[in-house]
Amino acid sequence: MTVLTQSPAKPGDAGGPAGGGRRLVDMVLRARELSILGALIVLVVATTIANPRFLSEQGVKDIFLNASILALLAVGQTMVVVTRNIDLSVGSVVGLVAFVSGKYASSGDRNLVLIALVGVAIGLACGLVNGLLVSFCKVPALVVTLGTLYVIQGLDHYIAHGEQIGAADLPSALLSLGNDAVLGIPYLPIITVLVMLVIGFYLRSYSSGREFYAIGSSPEAASLAGVPIRRRVLTAYLVSGGLAGLAGVLWLARFGTVVADAAHGWELKVVSAVVVGGVAIVGGTGTVYGAALGALLLTTIGSVLVVLKVTPFWQDAITGVLLLLAITVDRLLALRVTRVLRARGRKMRRTRDAA
C-alpha cells in the first residue's frame, strides 16, 4: 500500500488526501481488530454453551498464560513485518534463551533480574545479526532468518547435549514469575500487555515510530523523505530479538522443564498470529494490538479444540484457513483503499481545476 505517499500534503494535515488516507486506513484497521475481537467472543460463547467449564477461573487463566508468550513474540514480529521484512528465527531464539538462561539460573542462587537480562541480551545479539545482514548487507530477510533459525537450533542442541533442565533446579522467584498472580491476574499477561502498550504508543505517537510504516508502505518514498531505512530495519530486528529473548525467559518461568527443542516451530505460529491480527504481510499497515488479538484468537482456538476433544490436526488446519483468509481479506481491503484514495484525488483535482 502507498497511502503515505500519494500526496505532497503533510501527513498530519486533516484536509489533505494523506490525512484522509490515514483516517481511512485507521478505520480499516479498527474494523479488522473489532472483527477479530467479535470472532473471539463468538467462539468463547459457543464453546461455553457446549461446555460450561470452559470459562472456569482456571480455564481463563490457562488461556491468558498460554497466549502471553505468543502475543509477546507477535508484538516484536509486527515491527519487522510492517517494514516489509520477516523474522523466522524467533522460535529458535526462544528455545536457545530458555535453555541457556535455565543453565545460568540453575548454576547458583541467581537474581531474577540478572536471569532476564541474560535472556534479553542473547535475544538482542540474535536480532543484531539478523538486522545487520538484512539492513546493511541487503540479504533477503527470508533467507537470513531461515538460515539463523537453523544456526540457532544447532547451537542450542550443541549446548544442551541432550540435557534437560527441571523445575527443581530453578530459583523459586523465577517459577513464581511464571505461575503466580497479582490481584488474581497472572504476571505473564501483565508483562505482555505493558510491552504491547509501550510499543503501540511509540509506533503511533512518535515520528520515528511512524517511519516504520513509511518504510513498509514505500521504501523508495521513505528514502526520498530522509527516513533512515537501515537504522529503522535494524531497530525492528533488535526489538524482535530482544522480545524473543524475554519470551524465552518467560517460557522457562512458565514451564520450568526445558529441553533443547523448546518452542520448536513457533516461528510459523507467530507469523500466523501477526497476519491473522491484521498486519499486512507486504508491510505498511497493522498494529501490535491486532497482532496480540490474533495470538489470543489462535490460542483460544487451540483450547477450544482440546475442550471439545477434537483431534489436534484440526488446529493446524484451522490456523491455515485463518491465515489464507486473513491474507485474502488484507489484499481486498488494500485494493479497496487504493481505489477510494484515487477517487478522492481525482475529485480534489477536479475541484481545484474548477476553482
TrEMBL record:
Key words of the record: Cell inner membrane, Cell membrane, Membrane, Transmembrane, Transmembrane helix, Transport
Pfam families for the chain: BPD_transp_2
Subcellular location: Cell membrane
Signal peptide feature range: none
One GO CC term, this protein: plasma membrane
Keyword Cell inner membrane: yes
The UniProt record lists the keyword Flavoprotein: no
One Gene Ontology term of the molecular function aspect: transmembrane transporter activity
Membrane topology: Multi-pass membrane protein
InterPro entries (alphabetical): ABC_transp_permease
Bilayer-crossing regions: 34-51, 63-82, 112-136, 181-203, 234-253, 265-284, 291-311, 317-338
Subunit comment: The complex is composed of two ATP-binding proteins (LsrA), two transmembrane proteins (LsrC and LsrD) and a solute-binding protein (LsrB).
Purpose: Part of the ABC transporter complex LsrABCD involved in autoinducer 2 (AI-2) import. Probably responsible for the translocation of the substrate across the membrane.
PANTHER family reported in the protein's UniProt record: ABC TRANSPORTER PERMEASE PROTEIN YPHD-RELATED-RELATED (PTHR32196), AUTOINDUCER 2 IMPORT SYSTEM PERMEASE PROTEIN LSRC (PTHR32196:SF29)
Protein name: Autoinducer 2 import system permease protein LsrC
Species of the source: Actinomadura barringtoniae
